[in-house]
Design brief:
The chain is of the alpha+beta class. The protein has one domain. It has three helices and six strands. The protein has a six-stranded antiparallel beta sheet, with no helix packed on it. Helix 1 runs antiparallel to helix 3 (99-111). It is globular. The two termini are 18 Å apart.
Length: 114
């Protein structure tokens, strides 16, 4: 596992969430709008799956793609940063052209409150 900083913003309710993932598979979820935080730890299986998704060369390739034009008023915007990859992802426009990114986000969201 590598260190990951991920933010999730937007939506109808105005999300302002952040997830900090450490190399030891621990994480801290921060909800700035609610003023709360929650620590946690990935299981060995979750950690292994997420690490494999982060190491997938397709993720790095997708991070270099130009942003998709357009957006939607209630869309969710993600910003993900690791040592090797930094990218933005818009849930309304990017899913079809960024399948590796979508798999990573889904795995992280399934394992955390994000």
């Amino acid at each position: 596992m590598v260190q990951v900083v991920m933010t999730k913003t937007g939506g109808i309710t105005g999300l302002m969430q952040r997830l900090l993932i450490q190399p030891d598979s621990t994480w801290i979820f921060i909800d700035s709008k609610a003023g709360t935080s929650q620590p946690g730890k990935f299981t060995a299986a979750q950690s292994s799956a997420i690490a494999a998704l982060i190491a997938d060369p397709a993720l790095k390739a997708e991070s270099k793609l130009p942003p998709n034009p357009g957006s939607c008023a209630d869309g969710i915007a993600y910003n993900v940063q690791t040592l090797d990859v930094q990218f933005k992802y818009d849930s309304c426009t990017a899913a079809a052209s960024h399948p590796a990114t979508a798999r990573l986000l889904r795995a992280i969201e399934d394992a955390t409150p994000l």
